[in-house]
Amino acid sequence: MSIVIANLDFVKERNISAVYRVIVESGSISRIQIARQCRLAAGSVTRITRQLIQAGLIQEQEQQFSERGRRATSLAPSLGKVQILAARAGRTELHIGLCDLSGNLLARSSIPLKPVNQVEFTELLISSLREFIDTHQQHIRCLVGIGVCTPGLVDSSKGIITFMPHISISNLPLAEKVTEAMGLPCYINNFISSMALAEHHFGVTQGVKNSLYVSVHNGVGAGMILDGKLYEGSNLAVGEMGHIQIDPLGQRCYCGNFGCLETMVSNSVIESRCHKLLQSGVPSLLSEQANISDICKMAKAGDKLAHDLLKEAASNLGRAIAMSVNLLRPDRVVLAGEICEAFSIIHPVLTHCLKSQTVCVNDELDTKIVCSEIYQSPWYGGFTLVRRALLEQGLLLKLL
């Protein structure tokens, strides 16, 4: 009997989540269309939607004509009834945003972040979240969860951070601590994986079943969407593209290997190489304080040194992307980071690498390389974690 009850509970949860997800993703849909898409009986859809209406999560809209000429009532999500608090903890800044269910930003803030250990980091994060809520109380109606993204290695299923590149961390149960302090469910993940998921929900890979998200910033990392789901692997070291060996005789990486991609392609590496070449007398309009944005800007303006630096970086990056494409065969590769400011310069190099270093069935490339459109919106990663929990992972049942 207990097994039967467990199965019934699972089916109920799955059906409610499926109906709500269809309504949220469609924006407006009739009960008949819901029944078809979810493959449920009309009576089941009626019962579930009545429960969602009573909870204030969906609402009936003005009538529309159905396929048979009869008037059918549309159902739409009540966007104002669900709000999500999202945070991205970078190396130097903490970004916090308040969003509705569609990802519309209602309020945001950014503060300096320079903790040295996990105790300071946790305290600063929680105090900042509390201060944000106090400051933006006029916008807050119904928070359902908090999403937090960090660099490093994160066990999202357990809510534990095991490594951060700039803070001393030892199995920090961050999700549990934030939940206890804030009284709201907290979901955490690596920033790059979270942004890969956000691109799939809202960005340039929306509707694409298989995609690779490649971020070039302080290092190089990747997030993978396979068959419409975020791939998180069986351990934490997923998407470490920056540690693909490009040059066996190259510089030693902090991971212990030699010639990793990160030692050849990252903002700091490109900037450092630029400064050394300037000091050696290579002519350029760039100054010795030039950052990656300056290099991209001058490359587009025709500066040869800046142009050559980016083409060299793109060539090394393209080799690693080509290896990944041969292995995963994604439909789309999304590039993110400041280097995208010179996308017109690096894109031909990356495309050439894919054409020359991957197995192509046709003359045309099966995999397209595009630039992220939401990279500059740091709250999208954490927001998408909570949204996924609401639509797919049982958070909806807690609200009901």
UniProtKB/TrEMBL annotation:
Q: Give the GO biological process terms.
A: regulation of DNA-templated transcription
Asked if Endoplasmic reticulum is a keyword of the record, the answer is no
Recorded GO MF terms: DNA binding
Give the superkingdom in one word: Bacteria
Keyword Metal-binding recorded: no
What Pfam families does its record include?
ROK
Gene3D superfamilies (alphabetical) = 3.30.420.40, Winged helix-like DNA-binding domain superfamily/Winged helix DNA-binding domain
Keywords (A to Z) from UniProt:
Carbohydrate metabolism
- The name this protein carries in UniProt is ROK family protein
Q: What is the lineage of its organism?
A: Bacteria, Pseudomonadati, Pseudomonadota, Gammaproteobacteria, Alteromonadales
